[in-house]
Write a structure and sequence with these properties.
Shape: globular
Strand order of the largest sheet: 13-21-14-20-15-19-18-17-16
Distance between the termini: 126 Å
Structural class: alpha/beta
Radius of gyration: 36 Å
Number of helices: 15
Number of strands: 22
């Protein structure tokens, strides 16, 4: 074999070896790639399966959550009405809300709010009227009838939020709210959990206490915590539905024989401030859901009108002890309650205001306060003001009087127009017991339409007095109530408002303040009212009464007494 033959043979052998190596590597690579492909395919299948299962679980979870949401209805009509006023309250005064308007009324019930998403809601009818005279039976039956029909259309309910005041007087009924809830129970039954929210100036009869499962009221006067209290009542309801505990096992109810006007029980001052400060700590005790003190409503002559303490929960000892502590604390300080501001006669009030250099000097015309139930059209105070020589000239002490209703006078003012002169009678169309309609003659300085309560407002300048005359009665509580009429209360010497204790805006605005003991349907001198039907003895009408029984009365769980 030659050299070249040998070299060729080695080259062939090398190429063969290289081919074998490449074939081996290619085989290995294909095996690895196949395994990687299978592994990737397996991962993808697992991932897709997981996503499908997650989506399925999420859909199932959402479906379960939606399906298990409690069904909760909302209802309630609220007013504070004086039986000592000759006025009558009619249906339109409640400005009834229906459907979504009911939920939209509560700031904590916005569509995306946590509370809104905790239940399936069935709003029926709610109405809040300005305080006034007794509600006509026709108005009451109409509003209740509408509520019942709406409730019937979506039965059954797990819960019902009942938003009431507690001092509604209805012609022919002694316990309007007790009747209201009883007739609702006849429709929704006793499986439905009812949570009742009230004003602390409401009355809690035994019937109302029994038919309610959860119950609470405001803890501040003025009622700056009104919405907070309504929210608490609703949260209590939802919590009990969600945790499955349902109705509280124990409800302690203690009637306290005290009847005081709100102007003496403000939580701004002592002893009301400290008394109400004791409520929240009671609710923090194990086994207690809520606690409340109702001052009661002084201007209705009904057996249920007196103070009440209630505590609800699942621990009998905690509930009982808490209620008795609050009731005894209330009784112990009964003699310490005083008016929230200095009080005196109207004559003295005017003298103090005229001699003052502070602006504005506010006088509360308390006896005809429409936000306590007065007719709002008693003219006695305005008659006395117009007699004063200090206000005869346009250059005298400036005074705003808010307000007096007089629909015929408003019509004349509208015809005269701003800048025109008007003369006519106003006021005393409802309550003329203390003074007749008042004759006003002056220049129209403002005309405003569209207010929810007043409908039309006019201002007439009589000497240095700006008298606000309304088509329908209206309370003046906010600065904008005056400024929208071209009036500047901060730069006015004297502002007279039909009110008792000042609401926050007026309170913050005042430079000085006095409460005038004027006559009307909500007279602050309770002895002048002539009660005939309230339960006696009661403080302060029977100042020397013996120590009352302030032990707990246990209230049956709603529906239990009906089945026994």
């Amino acid at each position: 074999m030659g050299f070249f033959d040998l070299r060729n043979r080695k080259e062939v052998q090398n190429r063969q070896k290289q081919e074998i190596i490449w074939l081996f590597l290619l085989s290995k690579t294909r095996t690895i790639m196949k395994k990687l492909f299978l592994f990737a395919l397996m991962i993808q299948m697992v991932f897709l399966s997981s996503c499908t299962q997650s989506k399925s679980k999420a859909t199932s979870s959402n479906s379960n959550e939606s399906g298990n949401l409690p069904r909760v209805a909302v209802a309630g009509i609220a007013i504070e009405s004086s039986t000592f006023s000759p006025a009558r309250t009619h249906e339109e005064a409640f400005h009834a809300r229906i459907g979504d308007a009911v939920l939209n009324y509560y700031p904590f019930m916005e569509k995306d709010s946590m509370i809104r998403n905790r239940a399936k809601w069935f709003p029926t009818l709610t109405g809040h009227a300005l305080p006034g005279g007794s509600v006509t039976r026709e108005a009451y039956e109409s509003l209740l009838g509408q509520t019942i029909e709406m409730l019937k259309s979506n039965l059954p309910y797990d819960g019902l939020f009942l938003d009431i005041h507690g001092a509604m007087s209805v012609v022919g009924l002694d316990d309007a709210e007790g009747d209201f809830i009883k007739r609702i129970r006849e429709v929704v039954g006793y499986e439905t959990l009812i949570s009742t929210s009230m004003d602390l100036h409401g009355n809690v009869s035994r019937r109302l206490a029994e038919e309610s499962d959860l119950i609470t009221c405001y803890r501040m006067a003025p009622h700056e915590d009104a919405m907070e209290s309504k929210k608490r009542a609703l949260v209590n309801l939802l919590d009990r539905l969600e945790n499955g505990k349902g109705k509280p096992q124990y409800k302690a109810w203690i009637p306290v024989p005290i009847l005081l006007p709100g102007e003496k029980t403000s939580t701004r001052i002592e002893p009301g401030k400290s008394l109400y400060a004791k409520v929240d700590p009671i609710t923090k005790r194990e086994g207690v859901i809520d606690a409340a003190i109702w001052i009661g409503y002084a201007w209705a002559d009904e057996p249920r009108n007196h103070a009440v303490v209630m505590v609800t929960g699942d621990d009998q000892k905690a509930v009982t002890t808490g209620a008795e502590e609050l009731a005894n604390s209330f009784w112990e300080v009964r003699n310490d309650f005083v008016f929230v501001a200095p009080t005196t006669t109207l004559e003295k009030s005017l003298e103090l205001a005229i001699s003052s250099k502070k602006q504005p000097y506010i006088i509360s015309d308390m006896g005809d306060n429409p936000t306590a139930g007065g007719a709002g059209d008693v003219t006695w105070t305005l008659q006395e003001i117009l007699k004063r020589s200090e206000f005869e000239s346009g250059n005298g002490k400036t005074l705003i009087y808010a307000s007096i209703p007089g629909s015929e006078f408003v019509e004349k003012a509208m015809k005269a127009g701003v800048g025109g002169e008007v003369e006519g009678l106003a006021g005393a169309a409802v309550d003329s017991r203390f003074a007749p309609p008042i004759k006003l003659k002056g220049v129209v300085t403002a005309i405003e339409k569209g207010d929810k309560n007043a409908e039309v407002e006019v201002v007439v300048k009589v000497g240095s007095i700006s008298v606000i005359v309304t088509k329908k009665r209206k309370p003046y509580h906010r600065e904008k109530d005056f400024t929208r009429l071209g009036l500047d209360p901060r730069k006015t010497d004297i502002v007279v408002v039909k009110i008792g204790y000042l609401v926050p805006e007026l309170y913050d605005m005042r430079a000085d303040w006095v409460m005038a003991l004027t006559p009307g349907g909500v007279d602050q001198d309770l002895e002048r009212l002539g009660y005939q039907r309230i339960q006696r003895p009661i403080f302060p009408l029977d100042n020397n009464m013996e120590l009352p029984d302030l032990s707990t009365r246990m209230i049956a769980i709603s529906g239990e007494s009906k089945s026994n």
